[in-house]
Amino acid sequence: MAGRDTFQLRFAAVAASAAVLILLMAGQVAESRMINLCSHTAYPSLCRPLVKRVTNPRRATHRTIQALEAKTKVALAEAARFKNGNQAITTCYGTLSDAIYNLASARKSIRKRDVSAMNMYLTAAVSDYGACVDGFIETGQVNAVQNVAVDLRKISSNCLSLSALIS
Fold it and tell me: Start and end of every Pectinesterase inhibitor domain (predicted)?
């Protein structure tokens, strides 16, 4: 009887160990999938915090669009404070306003599952951020608005890369 109890105890321990191993491997697969989403982007370090624990490219793109909208609104408010008398910031203010429109349109397109329209709007947003950054480069300015615009351009580029993974 003692031998049978020992066998059952060992069997239970092996079964529990196997279950834990399977769960760990499943977690690594999900983590690997998330990393793989960001590995398709030009700036993975900016991608990872935005798509944490998301494995679906559509959701990752949607989440990144939402983050871009929020960050762009903050940048727009900052640009509004300094746009008087500074042509580069005035230009950037206009392009950031355009980017907000394009991001909102991209978000609506993703909900409608219109991937081509979403990509068109995301491409326009990348262009908007690029125009903002170019205005600062041409005038040789470096300031807080320009630094934020550079990050926004990088994140929007990532977003466009994520959207290309949507099937």
Answer: 30-162
Joined tokens for residue 141: 């300015």
Query: For residues 79-96, b (16+ Cβ closer than 10 Å) or e, as one string?
Result: beebbeebebbebbbbbb
Confidence band, pLDDT 50/70/90 cuts, at residue 159:
very high
Residues present in the chain in total:
167
CA distance 37 to 164: 11
d(CA 163, CA 155) in angstroms, rounded, equals 12
CA 146, chain centre distance (Å): 20
Amino acid found at 53? R
DSSP state of 55: -
Q: Is the pTM of this model over 0.90?
A: no
| pLDDT band, very low/low/confident/very high, at 69 (cuts 50, 70, 90) | very high
CATH topology of domain 40-163: Butyryl-CoA Dehydrogenase, subunit A; domain 3 (1.20.140)
